[in-house]
Recover the amino acids of this structure.
């Protein structure tokens, strides 16, 4: 899959209340499918998964997520559908309660606006953001070959690096030299202190070769998430100043690394370097199309 969770390292009793599985199964287990094969989540069930004890506290998170949806110019009513449900009460009767049917994007916004001090929220942010990005990236992503996955994510990376550069410039990172330092901080956070130069050497690349062109889909996915989340954080929190922007990039990279570690994934610097570069794959694809 596109995201970088290692399902082979999940605990056997994942999903139980005392030992919550923070990876894919936690959220996929509460997913529903409607009559038109559309996926959705109930807010009340997501509340429990995200360890909010009281609805009155969770509804505040939903309200912030709705505002974020409006600000991103998305149709709120497509992503947050108000519904009424019957709920049992202690005396054996039932009562009507408010609930929402949520899209994956709505869940993403909710965890983004949740209490980041909660471990499940932090890992939920990673899960939904990357899964949402996967769906935006290309349909039937899981059915693609590794080479096609690499091409798809690399092209997405090019687009988002442009947006990241713009956000960094707004924060005060202006010259090419300053941007190089800014990018290096992101790598250092994600790669446990290794900067672009060290990663380049570790992969055995020539000076003219680009690091991103020599990553597998899993490593590219981690870097894509680093870039998109740094971009959003710089804009959302109106970060100002080169030092603050550099620190933001470093901390986001470090957070992605920590999530990979907690989920039992392979650290990006330990992932294998593919034998073919992105350029070689592109040439092969062009040749196939011509043939």
């Amino acid at each position: 899959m596109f995201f970088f969770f290692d399902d082979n390292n999940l605990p056997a009793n994942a999903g139980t209340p005392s030992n919550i599985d923070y990876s894919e199964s936690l959220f996929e287990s509460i997913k529903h499918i409607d009559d038109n094969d559309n996926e959705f989540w109930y807010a009340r069930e997501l509340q429990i998964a995200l360890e909010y004890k009281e609805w009155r506290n969770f509804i505040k998170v939903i309200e912030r997520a709705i505002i974020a949806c409006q600000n991103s110019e998305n149709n709120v009513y497509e992503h947050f559908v108000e519904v009424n449900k019957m709920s049992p009460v202690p005396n054996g009767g039932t009562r009507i309660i408010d609930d929402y049917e949520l899209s994956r994007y709505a869940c993403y916004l909710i965890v983004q606006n949740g209490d980041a001090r909660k471990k499940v929220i932090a890992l939920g942010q990673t899960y939904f953001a990357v899964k949402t990005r996967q769906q935006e990236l290309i349909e039937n992503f899981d059915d693609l070959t590794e080479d096609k996955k690499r091409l798809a994510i690399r092209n997405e990376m090019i687009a988002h690096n442009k947006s990241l550069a713009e956000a960094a410039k707004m924060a005060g990172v202006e010259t090419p030299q300053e941007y190089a330092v800014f990018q290096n901080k992101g790598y250092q956070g994600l790669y446990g202190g290794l900067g672009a130069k060290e990663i380049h050497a570790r992969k055995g690349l020539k000076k003219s070769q680009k690091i991103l062109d020599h990553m597998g889909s899993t490593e590219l996915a981690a870097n894509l998430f680093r870039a998109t989340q740094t971009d959003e954080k710089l804009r959302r929190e109106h970060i100002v100043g080169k030092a603050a922007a550099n620190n933001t990039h470093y901390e986001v990279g470090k957070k992605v690394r920590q999530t990979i570690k907690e989920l039992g994934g392979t650290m990006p610097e330990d992932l294998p370097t593919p034998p073919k570069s992105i350029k070689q794959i592109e040439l092969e694809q062009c040749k196939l199309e011509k043939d």
About this structure: Residues 146-171 form the longest helix (26 residues).
